[in-house]
């Protein structure tokens, strides 16, 4: 199965690991080339810009469109919702949009961890997310 991996830029290193684990299970994990570059410590100037001017970096890099196209060309998405800044199972606004892209294109939606109960868009996530993996990638089918 071709699976686009979604998540905060804060989870970029974990995305590399999850992609490798998906490959071991016979899946093709897809992450943004920019996310991979940042995970490998390349382009620190871009990472600094993302931390300073996140919206501008997204616009200039065309990241929202990149993810849209990747999702359309995938079988599923995997939301890597880990802990971020004290928030358990974090899902940000950008990933919510990406879940929406997957939903309207009838793609399977997998959450790595349970839905974050504190989220102001809890109902929207629950309405679209099909499977919670509880960290177990072998549950992907």
Structure explained in plain terms:
It is globular and about 40 Å long. The model has no long low-confidence stretch (mean pLDDT 93). 47% of the residues lie in helices and 13% in strands. It is built from seven helices and five strands. By secondary structure, it is of the alpha/beta class. It has one domain (2-31, 64-139): TPP-binding domain (Rossmann fold, 3-Layer(aba) Sandwich), CATH 3.40.50.
| Tally of structural domains | 1
CATH class: Alpha Beta
Largest sheet: 5 strands, parallel
The backbone outline, from C-alpha atoms, is globular
Specify the number of helices. Answer: 7
Overall mean pLDDT stands at: 93
Strand order of the largest sheet: 2-1-3-4-5
Distance between the termini: 8 Å
Gist of the model:
The protein is α/β, with parallel strands linked by helices. The chain has helices at residues 12-24, 33-39, 44-52, 54-61, 63-72, 93-104, 122-128, and strands at 2-6, 28-30, 76-79, 108-111, 131-132. Helix 5 (63-72) runs parallel beside helix 6 (93-104).
Task: Kindly list the characteristics that best describe this protein.
globular, alpha/beta, single chain, Rossmann fold, five-stranded parallel sheet, 141 residues
